[in-house]
Amino acid sequence: MKRQNRRSFLHTAGVLAGASAIPVNEIAAKAFIDGDDTIKVGLIGCGGRGTGAIVQALMSGQNVQLVAMADAFKDNVEKCYKTISSPNFTDWTTGGTVDLSSKISLAAEQRFSGFDGYKKVIELSDVVVIATPPGFRPMHFEAAVNAGKHVFMEKPLAVDGPGVRKVLAAAKKAKEKKLNVVVGLQRHYQTIYRNWVKTLHEGAIGDIVSSRVYWNGAGVWIRARKPGQTEMEYQMRNWYYFNWLCGDHICEQHIHNLDIGNWVHQDYPTQVHGMGGRQVRNGKDHGEIYDHHFLEYEYADGSRMFSQCRHIKGCMNRVSEAFHGTDGSAPKPGVIKTRSGHVIMDHDDSNDPNPYQVEHDELFAAIAAGEYKFEDATNGAKATLTAIMGRMASYSGQVVTWEDALNSDIDLSPETYAWDADPPVMPDSDGKYKIAMPGVTKAV
Predict the structure, then answer these.
(1) What is the pTM (predicted TM-score) of this model?
(2) What value does the mean pLDDT take over residues 360-377?
């Protein structure tokens, strides 16, 4: 009975989005004009992930046309446009070349740059793909929903408590308007995870007692400061290293694993404590984020989730999840064992479809059919809050509760979005940024 109740909770939260269609009025679910089945899609955020996401939208198998795109930087817009409009574009899913030019209807005046370009994209589109740095997503998502547009949005969905609250409010409005929203937590669209989690929810290893989730790797790119850049431009170019834009790597990457932990536990954590710091990534070009976090999350039923994320070269790498139950274990995705070690599931994912493509295939199929099927934003916001509260705990050294994080008034966003405005954090006279100090920093 407990499992069934918690499974119902997750269905409401949208974690099992796509499991079944919700019958609605066809006109309410469609965002395009009856009599023309063209779905006009716009892209906000033209970096690497935005380029990948819009290609997957165009390859969804539906009558999709890219009609607008925007990025803060004009060169990002033009690079993305040149890449995807090439007749010899390489599809990284299959390794073959594809010609998407027939699906791109973009004159120069439909390619926008600057902080307000997103408004024009929303105006021209039926579906909006949001792949900006995370700090912008609450604002862009809210605007898209207010305009009545379906949304694909990358994760995480925010970087602070006020941002999460804004996304949750917009998610409620999207549900009322029957707007499909898919979030780029693609494991929910990955066959191995769908089968694995379903089997665990059916009680294959009994009640979940604990979980271990990991994102340990070498780290990501660094974009060096260039002569003549304002501080705002430098931080925007090097967005991964500033919390107002990224939320720290626990939010930007480790959210995937934390989300799987919540999915399997069928709940969200009540509190968290742990530690973190900067051991090797501590230069002027590393902004203000940590290079490692270790956290212990607690759920209402007393179960625990132990979390590791690290960006340090030359170390053991692991990006995975594992679960332990009263009757067995699930040591890695797709594998389930009894207490005696008997293997009852070992999923071979070598022929599974690409989940990055599946999430777009399913979203655009629902929109084309006039169906309302996807409400990912609520779970996406709560998965984001799970990561944010972890950052709060490691930065402050304190126990942080779910309510602490959700109701926090610490707003990381800048007062003004302009190239000559000061961002929320500024370097000192030596070019370094203030780093969170456990025991001193107030993080809630």
Answers:
(1) 0.92
(2) 98
- Check which CATH number belongs to the domain holding 293 and give it: 3.30.360.10
Do residues 327 and 398 both lie within one domain? Answer: yes
Give pLDDT tens digits for 284-321: 999 999 999 999 999 999 999 999 999 999 999 999 99
Angstrom distances, CA of residue 246 to CA of 57, 334, 417:
24, 30, 16
Q: Residues 44, 160: one domain?
A: yes
Which residues, 6+ apart, have CB-to-CB distance to 249 below 8 Å? 215, 219, 220, 240, 289, 290, 291, 309, 311
Q: What is the mean pLDDT of residues 69-78?
A: 98
What angle separates helix 255-265 from helix 377-396, to the nearest 10 degrees? Answer: 110
Q: Could you tell me if 292 and 155 lie in one domain?
A: no
Distances (CA, A) of 16 to 25, 109, 182, 190, 380: 22, 40, 11, 12, 12
Spatial separation of the C-alpha atoms in residues 67 and 304, rounded to whole Å: 46
> Alpha-carbon dihedral of residues 412, 188, 49, 135, nearest 10 degrees?
-10
CB 383 within 8 A of CB 389: no
